[in-house]
Amino acid sequence: EDNVKYIPALYVCNKVDTTGLSTFRRLGKSKNYVLISCNRNWNMDGVREAIYQALTPIRVYTKRPQSPPDLTQPVILCKGRHNVADLCRSIHSSLADPRRFYYANVWGTSVRFRPQRVGLTHQLHDEDVVQIMVRKDVQAE
């Protein structure tokens, strides 16, 4: 059983306008099911909302030293992946190496002071600004 991995899923059932009422009611009560009809344009907003709720994305902005943050292109982190290490890995895998990572400065709602120096395990919030500092004496692998 150690080799089994359960992943979350969202089931989108199309053509519900052609099914019977009993099937419609049974699927409608099920968890993680979204019922739609593309032909009749039923519940298309419900699909968007269900996807957004399943992913729970947050936007994190990056900042280079001595320059303002780039608020035009956020890094999107999804459910369960909201810490500085995940941000580093999404930019480049070598940034999350503890031998290379020095610290990060964070501005936003996840910190008490602005900026605040944090480590790899710090949990980020939506719209935080992060400046990653690396050791210069350690080369990327």
From TrEMBL:
GO MF annotations in UniProt: GTP binding; GTPase activity
Transmembrane segments annotated in the record for this chain: none
Segments forming domain GTP binding protein second: 1-55
Keywords from the named record: GTP-binding, Nucleotide-binding
Domain TGS: 58-133
Keyword field contains Phosphoprotein: no
Pfam families assigned to the protein according to its UniProt record, in alphabetical order: MMR_HSR1_Xtn, TGS
Keyword GTP-binding: yes
Protein name: Uncharacterized protein
